[in-house]
Automatic annotation (TrEMBL):
Residue sites binding substrate per the record: 57-60, 113, 118-120, 124
Protein name: Glutamyl-tRNA reductase
Chain ranges of the Glutamyl-tRNA reductase N-terminal domain: 15-160
Pfam families, A to Z: GlutR_dimer (PF00745), GlutR_N (PF05201), Shikimate_DH (PF01488)
Organism: Psychroserpens ponticola
Location of the Quinate/shikimate 5-dehydrogenase/glutamyl-tRNA reductase domain: 181-305
Positions of NADP(+) binding: 193-198
Note: During catalysis, the active site Cys acts as a nucleophile attacking the alpha-carbonyl group of tRNA-bound glutamate with the formation of a thioester intermediate between enzyme and glutamate, and the concomitant release of tRNA(Glu). The thioester intermediate is finally reduced by direct hydride transfer from NADPH, to form the product GSA.
Amino acid sequence: MEHYNMSKGTTFYAIGLSYKKADAEVRGHFSLDETSKLAVLEQAKQNGIESLIVTSTCNRTEIYGFAQHPFQLIQLLCENTKGTVEEFQKVAYVYKNRDAVSHMFRVGSGLDSQILGDFEIISQLKISARFSKKQELLNPFLERLINAVIQASKRIKTETEISSGATSVSFASVQYIMNEIDTVSEKNILLFGTGKIGRNTCENLVKHTKNEHITLINRTKGKAEAIAGKFNLIVKDYANLQEEINTSDILIVATGAQNPTVDKHCIQTTKQLLILDLSIPKNVNENVTDLENVTLVHLDDLSQITDETLERRKAHIPVAEAIIEDVKSDFNAWLETRKFAPTIKALKHKLTDFAVAELDTQRKKMSDFNETQAEVISNNIIQKITNHFAHHLKGDDVSTDDSLELIKKVFQLEATKENV
């Protein structure tokens, strides 16, 4: 079907920007934290938008939703971030209807990830959908679409090897450290920030470096302690950040702050210090490179690391795309049914009205009128007629839109709101 209409005058869009055209600095301008996401949803409701979800990760920020024009969604994003419309237009993408659906499938299935097969985005989509549903901004169309994307993602994980091997941003950071630093197991490593990327990085550090000198710091100390307990690591207070930086050889920053949390004034040591900034927006000020002993690497640099694992993954893309098409065809079949369901329901009501009127006429004419038999026969005929029309509308060789219009015209059906 060409248009995914939620109500008259609205279209389904996907708007956003990603690592493909927007560098880390620009992505940072459009990054949304939890408070900002909630503000977008609340403003959307005020603006009369009926359904949308918002995602923001280190690699992309996107809004999927129904609007009269995509600018409504672009405006929501720009008014709740540091980004401008002009900046957005230079790096953004806007998809509608089928293309928007296809884009979500590719994103959720790891085919559009900065590192092929990195499935971390699917959990973000799940969380975003739950968030929208809680705010009553998740209509049946979007909920069904999210579930279909989750299904495709699961199948791709289990039926292909596109996510085989340890390759993700968090692993790439550890791989970089091991390639660049000699005797890494003897170095002092400080991990600042224990969100999802921080946790994954920590796990990879423990697994691959065999280092027993890893210290964790998080603004909320309890979160760091929960991870440290699992791996028997050291936890320090946020107040000790500067002191710990100056005793470290490697600093990994994976915080979710909207502004830099580390700059050159935090660094008083003269020994070599490698800093990896895995945050969007950037959480390490570029001024640290003014110090001769500091090397700064950002996640965009890490994502360029390619190895034989990624090459092997590429061979599984055709199978993954076939799985997506399979799941998408089921989604489209459901969508077609949703599209004509209101008309079939209105037709059934119209036929029932005919039957009631005719039964009333015959009841007056016949002294031996059999109420029970008449109702059974009329109900069966109504069901057979509506089933016949429904079967016709499901056919591949008919134009559903033309058929719906004809049915409405012939039976003089009242216009129905065709929510999908």
